[in-house]
Amino acid sequence: MDLRLLKACGLSAALMLVGSTSYAESLNQAGLQANGETFQFGFASIPNIQISNAPSDTDYNRSAMLHDGSTYRLYFFKEGSEDTLYQFGFNGSSYQYGHNSIAQLRITNKPSDANPEDFAMLHDGSVYRLYMLSYDQTKVYQFGWNGSSYQYGHRSIPTISITGAPSDADKSRWAMLHDGQNYRLYFAKQGVTDKIYGFAWNGGSYQFGFDSPGVIDLDLVPTNSNFDIMNMLHDGSRSRFYYLAP
User: What is the residue range of the signal peptide feature (predicted)?
Assistant: First the structure.
């Protein structure tokens, strides 16, 4: 879906309002189809999942998700903070603040070049990991959970380059996951809401198209989605894609 077409169709006002406010009540969920090249909303998924009991100072513009082998988890920054996250767990019907979770988490030793305006998270089977882009968007900074905080460089390669990115990769919209085999990074394609670019860790960098479909489609995208914010995870059986929604 082209954002310019949304404007031409008169839908942009509502969509831009959704995308500009720091507020959300739910997540629209998509599942990866067997071809590995299309995330379809509602496919093998609960189409829409509520977010419950969020603190009043939750920053909905900065979110990430992961699955750790037992619980689907959702994270938001605390408004105005660069080092405090709120954690939510899926309770069977909603992502509930503090459910089966440490409610507040800290980030420590963040490099000055790590941009806290957005972040990504994953669990690779052994370590909970958090990532921030550099301000020039050419590399990711990696943090690992040390038992009390997400510490920069803990059990991690501290800094990893991003290589081969298409010129129209929208690096303000991104997510990461680990699918049991590969660490994966994704950027949205600029100006559209239904295509993302796939990267994977090649042993030295996150390389565009490495062991990945380079271009991945999003199908049946709900029009109430906040297209500015995308999240992804792998739950042991399927990769999943999310847009926040009112």
Answer: 1-24
Give a yes or no: residue 28 inside a domain: yes
Give tens-digit pLDDT for 61-89. Answer: 999 999 999 999 999 999 999 999 999 99
User: Is 104 part of a structural domain of the chain?
Assistant: yes
- Of the candidates 99, 13, 103, which has an alpha carbon nearest to the alpha carbon of residue 58? 103
Taking only the tens place, the pLDDT of each residue in 97-147 is: 999 999 999 999 999 999 999 999 999 999 999 999 999 999 999 999 999
Number of Cβ within 10 Å of residue 162's Cβ equals 21
Average pLDDT of the segment spanning 35-57 = 97
Domain count, the chain: 1
Identify the CATH number of the domain in which residue 191 sits.
2.115.10
Cα separation, 188 vs 203, whole angstroms: 23
239, 178 Cβ separation under 8 angstroms: no
Interatomic CA distance for residues 121 and 144, integer angstroms: 10
For residue 241, count CB atoms less than 10 angstroms from its CB and return exposed for 0-12, middle for 13-18, buried for 19 or more: buried
Count of alpha carbons within 13 Å of 91, Cβ hemisphere only? 15
- Which single residue is written with the structure tokens 């942009």? 12
Token pair, residue 123, equals 């669990």
Residue 15 sits in which domain range?
Answer: 3-229
State the residue for tokens 């500015």.
Answer: 228
Asked if residue 135 is part of any domain, the answer here is yes
